[in-house]
Amino acid sequence: MMKKQLGYVFLIGVPLFYLLAAIVPFLPVDVKIKGMLVPALIVIADVCFYIAALFLGKEVITKIKNKFSRKKQPVSVDEQVK
Asked: Rounded to whole angstroms, how far apart are CA atoms 57 and 60?
């Protein structure tokens, strides 16, 4: 039970780190710091996703990915001719 909760905490952290990476360029800090901070936040977000995947398991991550992925609509023969 604790593993699942910890997994969801890491999963919630992923978009937060991406949001922080999007905000950093607008902060009044040196360009060198911005240049190091943005990639670091993106790497941290990816690491959080993989840790969440370890704690939650393949089934939960697959369900979450399927919820956010775009599904391709089948194209009928009539639409292909046009």
From this structure: 6
